[in-house]
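Duplicate of earlier report; N-acetyltransferase GCN5 input re-posted below.
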Amino acid sequence: MSSAIWPATVECGDLLLRPISHRDKREWLQLRQRNAAWLAPWEASNPQPGAALPGFGEMVRSLNRQAKLATALPWVIAERKAGVGREPVIVGQLTVSSIVWGSAMMATLGYWVDQASAGRGIAPTAVAMATDHCFGALGLHRMEINIRPENAASLRVVEKLGFRDEGLRPRYLHINGAWADHRSFALTAEEVPEGLLARWLQERDESR
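Output:
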């Protein structure tokens, strides 16, 4: 199963989801440093006293292990930009995790995007690309996204894409040093028979 689903790259115009790599370390760390204040309120933290999150190398190794077990799809969000040789530049990260097969056929999706790239539709497009890949290529049935109630930008992403609000999960994840409530949003394959990306792109173009 794992060799059939990973590695995988998904593209839409100048935007692509590609596997995260150890070679991304310098670019990824620079991007995270520039976005430290932007991401801090939503940053996952370790509830164990004195414990820290893994470094870049450990994170990539862990994600790659999960990918080999067919339980995760660890992507960076990259964009081809004019004036930089058309080589895709990392503008965020998107991970499909907690993939459950068998009778569930579901997964959870999480992402972050560079503040300088926010507001241009990158996040909803990337989420739609990943969701379509999971529903189409992998045959999954349900995608779930959990968001802090205070995270207005991420709430707008799931609203634009038509994810259903399934309610509040009290103290769901340890975020920025404390157990934090999250709202749970979900979408099933039957709700987007024409594909989520096609629907999103059409709605985006019609609103311009």
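The two ends are 41 Å apart (CA to CA).

Merging into the original ticket.
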